[in-house]
Structure formats: structure tokens, C-alpha cells
Amino acid sequence: MLHTLCKLIAPFLPMVSEEIFKGLTRELSVHEAEWPLPQEFRSDSDLVETMDLVRDVVSAALRLREDAGLRVRLPLQSITIASLDIGNITDFEYSYRTKST
Hints:
Helix content is 58%, strand content 0%. It is mainly alpha-helical. It folds into two domains: 2-40, no CATH class; 45-100, no CATH class. Helix 1 packs antiparallel against helix 2.
């Protein structure tokens, strides 16, 4: 992962990426390495689906805040989410509660 990241950041941080790349691979230069192919990145369909759900929830909350005239910087005490697919919402709620405590 870090190997690929070095290749991707090389145009923007040439010296930093070069040092990290050389330390990782002992190859000559990150700038002479092959560019990473899209096939090298794994796709996690569950993660994509969960992030779509999170994006929808956040967008809806932002719309409601705007309609109510609430500033975004003020934290909400609670939010109620209604969904036909309760499984996804339950997973989202559990994940949020365990990470925020």
C-alpha cells in the first residue's frame, strides 16, 4: 500500500516520496517505477454500499439543517433515521456508537 502511495504522490512530493520508496523497495527511483494500474486496487462492495448510505444520511441531515436555519458547526443532540432497510441503519448506528465512546 505504501509502495503504491509513493508512486501516486511522487509528482506532488518528489523528494519525500523518493526517500520513502527507496527505504521500502531498494529500487533506484520512484520516478522510474511503473505507474500503478487500477487492477491493483481491490474493491470492497460492502464498504462502497455503506459509504453511499453514510453520504445519503449526511446529505439529508444537511438539508434539514439548512431548512431549519441551523448552523453546521452546532452539534445535533440526536438524529432519527427512517429506512426501509433497517439492517443497514442498525449496522451504521452500532458502528457509530462504538467508535464515539
